Amino acid sequence: MLEELAHHILDVARNSLEAGATRVEIVVEEDPAGDLLRFSVVDNGSGIPPYVQRHLTNPFFTTKSGKKVGLGLPFLQAAVERCGGNLEIKSEVGRGTKVTATFPYYCWDRPPLGDMPRTIVSLLAGNGHLNLCYRHIFQGQSFKMDTAEIRSRLKGIPLDAPEVLLWLRQYLEENLDILFGGGDHEVARRAG
Amino acid sequence: MKSLAELDKLREKLQDEMRLREGREDVKVVVTMGTCGIASGAREVLTAILEEVSKRGLKGVTVTQTGCAGLCHCEPLVEIERPGRDKVIYGHVDEKKAREIVVSHLVNGQIIKEWIIK
């Protein structure tokens, strides 16, 4: 099982990479007042053929040779169903895929959002050329990171050099803290 | 507080180091990150490796990722590929083991035989 929504996001975005995506956009939207937590992963990968789309949440279906199961999306579907949320997957062959998962914000069974900076940084390891855009919206305020902007400052130094990725992780942590209003947000928000 | 302007300093430092290393082949550290890997802690292992590599000031190490390797029962897996040597695969790696692998295998050149699966 995947313990954090950030793990699910990593898992879905890994599918994008497997589908040959060169651009991935991750949006996380938290709206406690509206009792909503939604994330989406949009890519420009190869897209999912219709015959595969019918089986996306079937754990015993996979497109990979030599394997009998494909658990990523079924796990996400189960997490969504446990809280009465919704999972939507739209895809077009040759254009790309959009996965959107919607959860109620206040629900005991909802996995915590978890460590988004770690997810973003892990996704970029070995993928320094990926165009990754990450937007996080909390109570209407938003923070945005775009690897294109970071790369333009690095001038040829690989984005996925360990030092750069660690810098990026800290940068994201600090900016999310500011977005959440500082302090230990997950505890505070849960208590609310 | 981190700002994008800070990246300029980091870039200059890394540019100097890269010039010194030019032409030499990197050691590759590969973390498998299929669903099986992610569920058993591959993300945590990968970031621990990044931290340890950076803390030890190791140069010429590429940390990268791949999909499921079909050894789901041994996840998280860490593969180490040194140019001209056989690939070494460590299984059931956690954050602590990952840091030890960096120190022992990458810094001291000592393979940790007990953790190898292949």
Throw out a few tags for this protein.
heterodimer, A: 192 residues, alpha+beta, Heat Shock Protein 90, six-stranded mixed β-sheet, B: 118 residues, four-stranded mixed β-sheet, 4 strands, 42% helix, 16% strand
Question: What do these coordinates show?
Answer:
The complex is a heterodimer of chains A (192) and B (118). Chain A has helices at residues 5-18, 50-53, 72-82, 116-124, 147-154, 162-179, 185-191; strands spanning 23-31, 36-43, 86-92, 96-103, 131-138, 141-146. Chain A has seven helices and six strands; from the N terminus they run αββααββαββααα. In chain A, helix 4 runs antiparallel to helix 6. Chain A has a single domain (5-191), classed as 2-Layer Sandwich (Heat Shock Protein 90), CATH 3.30.565. With 192 residues, chain A is α+β, with helices and mostly antiparallel strands. The longest helix of chain A has 18 residues, at 162-179. In chain A, strand 1 (23-31) and strand 2 form a beta hairpin. Chain B has 118 residues and is of the alpha+beta class. Chain B has one domain (23-115): Glutaredoxin. Chain B has helices at residues 6-21, 35-40, 42-55, 95-107, and strands spanning 27-32, 61-66, 78-81, 88-90. Chain B has a four-stranded mixed β-sheet with strand order 2-1-3-4, covered by helices on one side. In chain B, strand 3 (78-81) and strand 4 (88-90) form a beta hairpin. The longest helix of chain B has 16 residues, at 6-21. Chain B starts with 5 loop residues before the first helix and ends in an 11-residue tail after the last helix. The A-B interface holds A 1-2, 7, 10-11, 14, 18, 64, 66-67, 70-72, 75, 118-119, 121-122, 125-127, 149-150, 153-157, 160-167, 169-171, 174-175 and B 1-2, 4, 6-8, 10-11, 13-15, 18, 30-31, 33-36, 38-39, 42-44, 46-47, 50-51, 53-54, 61-68, 70.
